[in-house]
Design goal:
The structure holds four protein chains of four kinds. By secondary structure, chain B is of the alpha+beta class. Chain B has five helices and eight strands. Chain D has eleven helices and 23 strands. In chain D, the strands form six sheets. Chain D has a five-stranded parallel beta sheet with strand order 3-2-1-7-16. A five-stranded parallel beta sheet of chain D has the order 9-13-10-11-12. In chain D, strands 19-20-23-22-21 form a five-stranded antiparallel beta sheet. The two termini of chain D are about 40 Å apart. Classes of the chains: A alpha/beta, B alpha+beta, C alpha+beta, D alpha/beta. Chains in contact: A-B, A-C, B-D.
């Protein structure tokens, strides 16, 4: 097409006083933005190729580079925004479905940001986590309903398999294939060091990572990639992925170009073939079918592994979660609509699903109303961004949270939202060897460990402030929350009072 | 003793180490001003070919052939670090002849130069290590 | 202003209790003197007593103590009671008119036993049937409130200073083997008679000094099991937890203490394997029943008392012994005033329960 | 323990440093007929040229003897070794007993039946320096390393320099014809004249004559006491055939691992490493130096030459960007090389010779083109750079 309607979103601003022509930016940009012009002895940039991933900015040793948002503007109006116009132009020129990556960027309300946390004053002392024990251990799994005793009257441990976490944070499912080997290694090693869990996603488990089994949740998704008895037994728990917050109602598609070498082997599909995860599991068309799969997986693993079921937060999530709780699952994972993805149709990502805060609150309430809250643990996912989000999620009723995007950010992701291009300059969402080597797991895992340790400290501080010294007494403790700027219906769904009440 | 170790698995060939080394060799405060328009001559150098790259700098050998071969005594070992006294060097390059790593090179003055682990700066680690974005160059104690 | 139960009211308090292990009965006068010493810990917005062994002649009947706002609520409630229970005896609870206690509701006492037909039809065990009926009255019948429902025990409470409440109810005329008493310092002041402490369900009564930070987690957990926390007070939720764990889950008082004031994971980690597994199992199963934040409680139950502090011991509580008598109070002075010559005095560590039972087991 | 070292130059100093690695307290005495602090012999031409001063000539710091607790007997000559009694007789009539003895007597200029200066010692250099004047014509007999360094040293300070040699090319012992021509041209461009393939019969017309026609090892002290070939024979522990007597440096002969032949390899690095090796072994340690090869790094007026090994076998040759390079190899091994001009990373070639690296274990084509660690296997690099 002769005329390109789309003006680049970003401009590369180079300070030529500072640029020393070291060409690091040129070498580091997989998108080919930067180029050295030998005859002019000068670096130049093609803004159109820039995805604003900040790799060049971060590595520029003289800080000669910055990326600025273009101030070029269409004749926008309140109805037709520049983004909307651009998307339309793109579709008019390609005829294709728009693809996007990472979580929903649209300005829907972020309820976490409209919830405030309580602290003790006078009548109930706050607790100083530097002086007193402050417990963040969480144990996930179904809790038995009947106390059993031996002949001499001692209580017997009749607990079904449980997952013990040093803090209520896990790394959410990101498949080997959608992210790199080194990203997986970073997650696995961090989970091991932190005594938490990471999740294989639906890409199977690379043989090198079986050693992290006790810190691994192995996922079974609709494509059943990489699933075999050894895989199921390799982890600490099994997760059935029914849906994903970023793209409820649809499956996944990893292009054949990424199905190479170890990825093909790990997924157990031929090299070069597309890995297509169907929208539904083709053996699950109802809740009874889910129950069968739950028990099939439990049987396959001698009832030694808890089974988790992950669903996207959709409109009737509470009823679905109730069904899952009754299906024999030990854990139900709710993935809100701001959760990330390696690739999703833009319209699905941006317009389907509901916020995790509301989904979590209504699921927790529903399960309690039905008296079955102890039968399952509830894990919240879908854009948990900080320790404050975690404290709020737990007070709303979550047992633990999954972090995906947050973990990737710790690994260097700059949220350029171009995972689907496979050219991640940070070595995370790519399989290109020159790019994957940019993520050294020695650094990556340490950054994850740092992040979670920092969050743990903050969680402890906030707990201490509330006079709570064990995280189980934060769980569902909604009196510790107040809403600000929320309407009565939102407060009702969240089950919290307004600030000042 | 802590030494610089290189792991080519993680080397991106970005050459930041060379630039940081070159800057460490200047007395400048601003890297852009110090290196602008300068053809750098660092004491750590990247070898690169077909997607493989790695940095080479002095290994600070326990049996340093360069020190033993030095005809003037310009090279010596100070607390395990092989240092060069450029005033004593007469540019015979016997050390270049001896060094099995190719880690000694010539400086602008003709005297040899080599990595001295930035011991003359107050930094807690050499500039190349501090500047490496991917831990391909580390400074640590190993047996 | 919202009434007790319509909003959550944090409060500070004083507690005291005594039990004679031999089962010898004493009157309530000593308890009045004991709590009076801690006058400063109350603010006149609530006081009350639980007395065990006071109704020997009706010991096989549930003694229901009720507050009524009006004769019409009384009528409605009595209709309900008659439909579900055989009422052996009913009377006004005797009170003494004193200027310190005002605005009293109608205060009635019924000795009842479930109608066998109703009980059989419900499919419930007797105590669950009674408990359900109590909840029914308290949640459904406006203006009626059952504040005591155990056998051979009774709760007496009112808005006022606890020593005045004692005189009001003529506590000196009751003789029992164990008493607990509570003086209240709520930091919000609606002051409703039903909201005074002790809080009781069936034989379980709780007096509590503290303000627990786990309240809503505990409440929302316990409400799954048929309890409704109408008062929104710590004491209420603690009483339900005790009832749930003891009556429904069969845990002993000591085991209950290990749930609500569980040892820290780190402490558990240093225990021998058997103890470790015991505590891990309890903590895991009953995680929602863990109570955090400051509390010192005296739990009354049939045949005994349990004193327990939160695991950090964020509230004072001392225990003293003299012969067969064991005293528990927020302050030592409250014990010394009634028994200056003690065999021993000690402060139990946080999370370590002191359970005192009548010699020869439960009555 | 009493250590006696005859010789105060590179091998002797290496010996002191070797002994002190093991034995911090034994007595060490150095006997030196030169009345000087230890100095670097190869620097004498730089001294003449004025590039270094007396201070910079010092091979080790002033405090060296004190730091290492060494007794220096300078200006005294060792005249006889009494191996039976384990003592060295000195020119001043005294005698010094030893438990372990190192002979590091070096070499002296080959004598010709022509009067002239030799150019071996500090004193030689100072003497020559005193003779230099702008109108003087100088004849240097010998176009080897010493002769040419001397020529470089006096270039510009005299009226003319003529270098004569019997051999047909300069630096005959270390360069091939092509390399020699390059060096000769480099000198000639700066006014130095050469008379090659001719023997000098007369020095008429020259004001100063420097004789640099090769060196002879000083082996006499051990004559009849230990085995002597071209030089004092030593094994890989630098032991002579006589127990407790060690020898090191230019006075010895040892195995050239590049050729397998017994050779005198009178060059400074070898001298140091032999001396150090001897010292460690004298002090009861266990050290082997079995990697001696002929090698030289030398520069003349900005032209740098590095050579090593021997020049046999097939030849890889490249002349690019003013750099002259020849690699000599056979039987899967690098035997030697000549590198003139850009000598960057030459030591990697040296290591191939010294370590007898099988050439099929590296990327030979790549390393021919350019010395670099890239030519080694990943595992080798891990070992060399990664320390594991």
């Amino acid at each position: 097409m002769a005329v390109n309607y789309i003006y680049p979103d970003y401009e590369v601003a180079r300070n030529y006083d500072k640029c020393i022509n070291c060409r690091v930016c040129e070498k580091q940009c997989a998108n080919g933005v930067h180029e050295y012009l030998a005859d002019a002895d000068k670096m130049v940039a093609d803004d159109a190729k820039c995805v604003n991933c900040h790799r060049c900015v971060a590595l520029c040793l003289t800080r000669a580079l910055k990326i600025i948002k273009s101030d070029n503007t269409y004749r926008e109006n309140a109805n037709w925004s520049g983004k909307t116009i651009n998307e339309l132009y793109r579709q008019a020129s390609t005829g294709g479905v728009l693809l996007s990556s990472m979580g929903n960027p649209e300005p829907y309300p972020v309820y976490f940001d409209k919830i405030l946390i309580n602290a003790s004053q006078v009548t109930n002392p706050s607790i100083d986590p530097l002086r007193e024990p402050m417990e963040t251990r969480v144990i996930l799994g179904a809790k038995p309903q009947v106390i059993e005793r031996d002949k001499s009257g001692h209580i017997i441990n009749n607990l079904p398999p449980q997952l013990k976490l040093s803090m209520p944070i896990m790394f959410s499912a990101m498949s080997y294939g959608s992210i790199s080997y080194n990203a997986h290694e970073s997650l696995a090693r961090a989970a091991e060091e932190l005594d938490v869990l990471y999740n294989t996603g639906e890409g199977g488990l690379h043989e090198d990572f079986y050693r992290y089994g006790k810190n691994t949740i192995v996922q079974v998704a609709s494509g059943r990639f990489g699933v075999h008895p050894g895989y199921l037994k390799a982890g600490a728990a099994i997760e059935i992925k029914m849906g994903q917050g970023a793209k409820p109602g649809i499956g996944g598609h990893l292009p054949g170009s990424k199905i190479v070498g170890d990825i093909s082997r790990t997924r157990m599909i031929p090299e070069g073939s597309d890995a297509i995860s169907p929208a539904p599991h083709h053996d699950i068309y109802s809740i009874e079918d889910l129950r069968q799969l739950v028990y099939s997986l439990k049987t396959a693993t001698d009832f030694k592994k808890p089974v988790s079921v992950k669903i996207a937060a959709v409109h009737n999530v509470a009823a679905i979660a109730s069904g899952i709780a009754r299906s024999g699952a030990d854990i139900v994972v709710l993935d809100g609509f701001r959760g990330g993805t390696g690739a999703a149709p833009t319209r699905m990502r941006d317009h389907v699903g509901i916020p995790i805060e509301l989904a979590l609150a209504s699921v927790d309430k529903r399960l309690r109303d039905e008296g079955i809250r102890d039968r399952v643990s509830v894990v919240a996912a879908g854009s948990i961004r900080s320790s404050a989000d975690i404290v709020k999620a737990i007070a709303l009723g979550a047992d633990a949270v999954y972090i995906g995007t947050g973990a990737l950010l710790a690994l260097g992701c700059h949220l350029c939202r171009n995972c689907h291009t496979g050219k991640c300059n940070w070595g995370i969402a790519t399989q290109v060897p020159e790019l994957t080597k940019r993520l050294n797991p020695d650094i990556g895992y340490k950054r994850l460990v740092n992040l979670l340790n920092a969050w743990k400290h903050e969680i402890k501080e906030m707990m201490g402030g509330m006079g709570i010294n064990s995280i189980e007494t934060l769980k569902g403790n909604r009196l510790m929350l107040r809403g600000v700027g929320l309407n009565a219906k939102e407060l009702e769904v969240l089950g919290i009072k307004h600030a000042g009440e | 003793m802590k030494r610089v170790y290189v792991n080519e698995k993680w080397c991106l060939g970005c050459r930041l180490c060379e630039y940081y080394c070159a800057f460490a060799g200047t007395s400048g405060k601003d890297i852009a001003r110090s290196l602008k328009g300068v053809k750098i001559n660092p004491r750590i150098k990247i070898e690169e070919k077909d997607g493989i790259s790695f940095a080479v700098s002095c290994r600070h050998c326990k049996e340093p052939l360069c020190v033993k071969g030095c005809i003037t005594g310009a090279l010596s070992v100070a607390d395990g670090v092989i240092v060069v006294n450029q005033d004593k060097c007469v540019s015979c390059y016997t050390c270049v002849l001896c060094c099995p790593f190719g880690a000694i090179s010539t400086s602008e003055s003709g005297a040899v130069q080599k990595c001295e682990l930035c011991i003359k700066s107050a930094a807690d680690k050499p500039a190349c290590v501090a500047g490496c974005p991917n831990n391909a160059i580390v400074f640590e104690e190993r047996r | 202003m919202l009434k007790e139960g319509e909003t959550r009211i944090p409060s500070g308090c004083a507690i005291s209790g005594v039990i004679d292990k031999s089962g010898k009965r004493m009157n309530g006068e000593a308890m009045i003197r004991s709590i009076a010493v801690m006058h400063e810990r109350s603010n006149g917005l609530g006081g009350g007593f639980a007395a065990y062994g006071i109704y020997p002649e009706y010991k096989d009947y549930y003694a229901l103590h009720l507050f009524y706002d009006s004769p019409s609520s009384k009528k409605e409630c009595e209709d309900f009671l008659e439909r579900h229970f055989d009422i052996i005896n009913l009377s006004k609870i005797p009170t003494r008119k004193i200027p310190e206690i005002t605005d009293e509701p109608l205060i009635w006492r019924y000795f009842v036993t479930p109608l066998p037909t109703k009980l059989a039809a419900s499919g419930l065990d007797e105590r669950e049937f009674v408990a359900k009926c109590v909840f029914r009255v308290n949640t459904r019948i406006s203006g009626a409130y059952v504040f005591s429902s155990g056998k051979n025990m009774g709760v007496f409470k009112a808005v006022g200073y606890p020593e005045d409440v004692g005189r009001f109810y003529k506590l000196e005329e009751y003789e029992g083997y164990a008493f607990t008493v509570h003086g209240r310092y709520p930091t919000n002041t609606p002051g409703w008679w039903g909201g005074a402490h002790p809080f009781a369900l069936l034989d379980y009564s709780v007096v509590h000094n503290g303000e627990i930070s786990s309240y809503d987690a505990n409440r929302r957990a316990i409400e799954q099991y048929g309890y409704s926390c109408t008062l929104q007070t710590d004491t209420e939720v603690i009483a339900y937890i005790v009832d749930y764990l003891n009556r429904k889950k069969g845990l002993s008082m000591e085991e209950i203490a290990h749930v609500v004031a569980a040892p820290f994971w780190e402490t558990i980690g240093h225990m021998d394997k058997k103890k470790q597994e015991y505590h891990e199992t309890l903590r895991t199963i009953f995680a929602p029943q863990l109570i955090t934040g400051p509390f010192s409680i005296i739990v009354g139950f049939e045949g005994g008392l349990m004193a327990l502090n939160d695991r950090l011991k964020l509230r004072s509580m001392v225990i003293a012994e003299k012969g067969d008598k064991v005293y528990i109070a927020s302050e030592e002075a409250a014990i010394r005033i009634i028994e200056p010559d003690l065999d021993c005095v000690y402060a139990p560590a946080g999370g370590c329960p002191v359970v005192v039972r009548l010699n020869g087991g439960e009555q | 323990m009493k250590y006696v070292i005859i010789g105060n130059s590179t091998a002797g100093i290496g010996c002191v440093e070797g002994i002190r690695q093991i034995d911090k307290s034994g007595n060490i005495a150095i006997i030196s007929d030169e009345p000087h602090h230890t100095y670097s012999r190869p620097l004498i031409s730089y001294l003449v040229k004025g590039k270094v001063d007396a201070e910079q000539m010092k091979y080790r710091a002033d405090s060296f003897y004190k730091d290492n607790d060494v007794t220096l007997l300078s200006g005294v000559r060792a005249v006889k070794i009494n191996a039976g009694e384990k003592a060295v007789e000195l020119s001043d009539g005294n005698s010094i007993a030893y438990d372990k003895l190192l002979v590091a007597t070096g070499s002296r200029a080959f004598e010709l039946p022509i009067a002239g200066n030799s150019f071996m010692t500090l004193d030689d250099a100072r003497k020559l320096q005193s003779q230099l004047a702008p109108e003087k014509k100088v004849l240097i007999i010998g176009a080897g390393l010493i002769g040419l360094k001397c020529a470089e040293g006096i270039l510009g300070r005299v009226a003319s320099i003529t270098v004569a040699d019997l051999a047909p090319r300069v630096l005959a012992s270390i360069l091939d014809d092509g390399g020699a021509a390059l060096v000769q041209k480099h000198f000639e461009e700066r006014g130095v004249k050469f008379i090659l393939s001719k023997s000098v019969s007369s020095t008429d017309g020259f004001d100063i004559v420097v004789i640099a026609a090769g060196v002879r090892p000083n082996t006499e002290l051990l004559s009849g006491i230990a085995q002597i070939g071209k030089g004092i024979a030593i094994n890989e522990k630098c032991e002579t055939s006589n127990p407790d007597i060690y020898a090191a440096g230019d006075c010895t002969e040892s195995i050239d691992v590049s050729s397998g032949q017994q050779k005198i390899m009178a060059l400074l690095p070898n001298a140091y490493m032999q001396g150090e090796c001897a010292g460690v072994n004298m002090a009861g340690g266990n050290k082997i130096f079995d990697k001696a090869i002929p090698m030289n790094a030398i520069g003349f007026m900005g032209l740098h030459i590095i050579t090593a090994g021997n020049y046999t076998g097939e030849v890889y040759e490249s002349n690019k960007n003013g750099t002259y390079k020849k690699l000599f190899y056979s039987d899967n091994k690098l035997n030697g090389y000549i590198f003139i001009g850009d000598i960057e990373k030459a030591g990697i070639y040296t290591s191939l010779i010294r370590d007898r690296t099988p050439l099929d274990s590296i990327d030979w084509a790549l390393i021919c083109e350019k010395p670099g660690l890239m030519a080694f296997t990943k595992e080798d690099r891990m070992l060399k750079l990664g320390g594991r």
